[in-house]
Specification:
The chain is of the alpha/beta class and 423 residues long. Helix content is 35%, strand content 15%. Bound molecules: 4'-deoxy-4'-aminopyridoxal-5'-phosphate (PMP).
């Protein structure tokens, strides 16, 4: 695998597309951002025609794999009859009903396009429902790139003053954020005790910190959140953009048995097409008819909703999530033993089909996991296995035990390289 085609393509792209990538973190892929020509199942082919086992999986959406035939058929069928109509169509309710059937105790939804957008409208609903304006989030958690939540991405950024994470953000955009620590029961108790005086409208949480290490929440933490939000009139919002339709059919709410007031879904909801949704309590979401503005030209377009409906049908099939669980467990076992027998460079954390490489002695963060993963993932790419530069590993039902065995063998080989070995 020479990766030369991607090197050339990246250099050419930078002359037209600012930064050379369409979404920031892709730039950190080593040795160079990979350029794909086609993809099917668990594999991707680059511009030279070289094949890679893909664990990037578009950073989450492809829980059924690339080009899944049932999804592609559904999209193809609708695409030739209409594309976007800006008015009602049958798939609006058929896809909505399918989502509500999948998510525990979900009563209503609104459609949006991306996770970033859906988070913004979820916060708007929470503010309208409570008449308050502040939002608690957890340090390191990513909820999209929008100014009001893209803040306090570093471990130590905790407290009442959120820290912007990009140049160019308004200093006034995060004044509503309060930042707490994930799994810290006492901290959240102390904050929510005074929710009314502090004007706290919502707690926004990714229940497994998908972008910041992949952590199991403690049962006590999620239960405390649920109890305190109910007691103090705070809207509990689960950001299920990564966890939704991945760690269980009904996402984190199903897996951990805690029902939030609102949930935000994106990525896997449409199995590779652009769609997101805010799902939850009817009394909150029905405020859309009582003064809450929600809009979008492409919201609920037929092409994306055909993909949503088809994805929901696949997710409802018996055995889908036990297959993902088994694949996740065998990836964890086989790759962990390769890591352990080669100098202990790091370990894996896993919830279902989402894994995270955790380098020994370093912290994980949104922007990468430190130097050693850059070296390992770069060498793995050159050996035909594609990973995200942040160390998140996405499995799909298209991955096979053979793919995993080949991946573990490649790890064994790559970790023996002089430049990577730690002793
Ligand atoms: N929330 C979480 C947990 C995410 O991982 C992401 C995207 N990685 C978002 C929100 C934003 O979604 P999108 O990229 O579709 O705007």
């Amino acid at each position: 695998m020479a990766i030369d085609s991607s090197r050339d393509a990246y250099e050419r792209t930078r002359l037209s597309l600012a930064g050379g990538v369409s979404s920031g973190l892709r730039r950190t892929m080593r040795p160079v951002p990979l350029f794909a020509e086609r993809a099917a199942g668990a594999h991707i082919w680059d511009l030279d025609g070289d094949r890679y086992i893909d664990y990037v999986m578009a950073w989450g959406p492809l829980v059924h794999g690339h080009s899944e035939p049932h999804i592609i058929d559904a999209v193809r069928r609708v695409m030739t009859s209409m594309q976007v109509v800006g008015m009602g169509h049958r798939l609006e309710y058929e896809a909505a009903e399918a989502v509500l059937e999948s998510v525990p105790q979900a009563q209503r939804l609104v459609w949006a396009n991306t996770g970033t957008e859906a988070i913004q409208v979820a916060l708007r609903f929470a503010r309208a429902a409570t008449g308050r304006h502040r939002v608690v989030k957890f340090t390191k958690a990513y909820h999209g790139w929008q100014d009001s939540v893209y803040a306090s991405i570093d471990e130590e950024d905790v407290g009442e003053t959120a820290v912007p994470a990009s140049r160019g953000q308004s200093p006034n955009a995060h004044t509503d954020l309060i930042v707490s620590q994930f799994n810290d029961v006492e901290a959240i108790r102390a904050l929510l005790r005074d929710a009314e005086e502090r004007q706290i409208a919502a707690v926004l949480i990714d229940p497994i910190m998908s972008n910041a290490g992949v952590h199991e929440p403690t049962v006590q933490f999620l239960q405390t959140l649920r109890e305190l939000c109910s007691r103090h009139g705070v809207v509990l919002i689960f950001d299920e953009v990564i966890t939704g339709f991945r760690i269980a059919r009904g996402g984190a709410a199903e897996r951990f048995g805690i029902t939030p007031d609102l949930s935000v879904f994106g990525k896997a909801i449409a199995g590779g097409f652009t769609q997101s949704a805010v799902v939850g309590r009817a009394d909150i979401l029905d405020l859309v008819e009582d003064g809450v503005m929600h809009a979008g030209t492409f919201n609920g377009n037929p092409v994306a909703l055909a993909a949503v409906k088809a994805s929901m049908e696949l997710s409802a099939k018996p055995g889908m999530y036990s297959t993902l669980e088994e694949l996740g467990a065998s990836f964890e076992d086989e790759v962990t033993s390769a890591l352990a027998s080669n100098g202990g460079v790091g370990t894996l954390r896993r919830v279902g089909s989402l894994l995270q490489f955790v380098p020994s002695g370093e912290i994980t963060s949104l922007h990468g996991t430190g130097g050693i993963w850059s070296e390992i993932s770069g060498a793995m790419l050159e050996a035909g296995i594609a990973f995200t530069p942040s160390g998140k590993i996405f499995l799909s039902t298209a991955h096979t035990p053979d793919d995993i065995a080949e991946t573990a063998e490649t790890f064994e080989r790559v970790l023996k390289q002089e430049s990577i070995r730690v002793s």
